[in-house]
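Q: I'm writing a short explainer about protein-tyrosine-phosphatase for a general audience and would like to include a description of its predicted shape. Could you first generate the structure from this sequence?
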Amino acid sequence: MIDLHCHLLPGVDDGASSISESLEMARIAVHEGIHTAVATPHFHPGIYDNSIRSLQATFTEFTHALVKANIPLKVRLAGEVRLTEQIINALPASEIPMLGTYKGNDVLLLELPYSHIPPGTENLLQWLNRRGVIPMIAHPERNREIMQNVNAISRLTKGAVLFQLTIGSFAGSFGVKAYETAIALAKKGHLDVLSTDAHNLKRRPPLTKVGLSEVRKWIGDERTHSAIEELPRAIIS
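A: Of course. Here's the predicted structure. Afterward I'll give you a sentence or two in plain language.
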């Protein structure tokens, strides 16, 4: 499996707090079947003021530690970007980290607020499309507005967009409503990529087996494989 969304880097956001925790999370990830992970620390102005440049030293230290610990996990660096107005200024300045490319366009992991879909989101998504960027919406099944009415996701489908659902949602890790919403979105075809969104060892480790077993019940082996291997590989290749 290729995990396109996880918070493995230590001490840069609300993910791993130390290099030792990062390494133990990496060990678990490998045991759970993950061979490649994209570290996606939060990019949220005023809360997590990260940049690719500021993260590079930590990322390099982490990659060296993986080799030293003999953990066979390939890692890359990108980011989970919060939907804010700052995107409009940051994109032309090349300050926004991309996951990779798909069909000739950059792919951006974009996080909505958990409470709602902000007014103007549709316009921002189309603005990104016009500039050669495909937004990949992170964990829409945990957005309260979508949980209350799954059809609200239609507001996000006016242009080119991908949806990344969290494996743990299918295991019930985020509650019954997130579980039900994840299934509903998957059945409607709004599931392109499955990721762990792992943050730590205690509450949100990079577990996959239970959730993926549940996913396969609803969408089958072929679509599940596409979401954890084929499409992620196409994006990062």
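A: For your explainer, you could say: Strands lie at 2-6, 36-39, 42-43, 74-77, 80-82, 100-102, 105-111, 133-138, 162-166, 193-195.
Q: Perfect, that's easy to follow.
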